[in-house]
Amino acid sequence: MIKDKYPIERRYINKRQNVRPGTRLTSGTPGFLVAHDTGNPGATADNHFTYFQNLKERSASAQTFIDDKKILEIIPTGTGPDPAEKAWHVLYSVTTDNKLYGDDANDIALGVELCYGGKINALESYKRFVWYMAFCCDKWGLNPLTHIPSHKQLDPARKSDIDQALATIGKTLKNLLYDVVAEMKEQPVVINTPAVVQLPASVAQRLIDDYVSPAWFVAQQAGNQVETTHLHNLADNLRLASCIPLQPGSVAPFKQLYKSNAQELIFRWLSPGWFSAHRKGDKSGMDYFKSTADHLRRAAGMPTE
Asked: I need a labelling partner for 72 at 20 to 30 A (CA). Which of 95, 110, 135, 250 fits?
């Protein structure tokens, strides 16, 4: 899967028994993930950080809150350097979690909350939620189809999350689980960089003789020191890209042509030459300018057109 698709922000609430007891999960690493929604439409991840940071009158919390802008861990989960800690997201008196997973969700599972409603972009929030679930399953070898119960499944008499939030975007828990599976299978796009090929010496010398040197003399006559220096360096870069010695009798190891040099030569001289040949119907001229441009691209490690 793509493990760096979204950043994970870790900003922890203070340790207090009613929200963050500071106790590690009994299982060490999470044994399953409980899919929640906040039940608080319009409230963001940051809003929930502030709420639980200040909560005093009751015991409640979850490790992670996800909206359309961020994935925010407010209690350590083990995805970063800090070991996973307990949160209070499923009642101990409800024993469905014990029957399914052999222990209490608070002691061995992460509570992951989906923010939705109001001005929150529900689809963006959902994408981050799916990716985070996939990231956790991949990290700890969990099967999404069996190890992501909803809060409603664990406490059906009282709870309707995560189903109520999913319904706002036409999704079900089944959709969520299969989307997590698909996310785990997604692979990063691999961009193959073209191989760098030495510029033929004849091509380099022709470019210097036909374009660079004449432009250098014009700049010199105009007293344009900046341009003369630039064109001198451009000629030397062409020589190095074709292993032409800069000094008689010296050795010239190959050096990749700068992409900016290739682009300048193409757009300043070769492209106008190609269009001129095209207007005249000169196919051999068009082929010459195209071939020369492709030599420059290959010497700079750029794809040919």
From this structure: 95
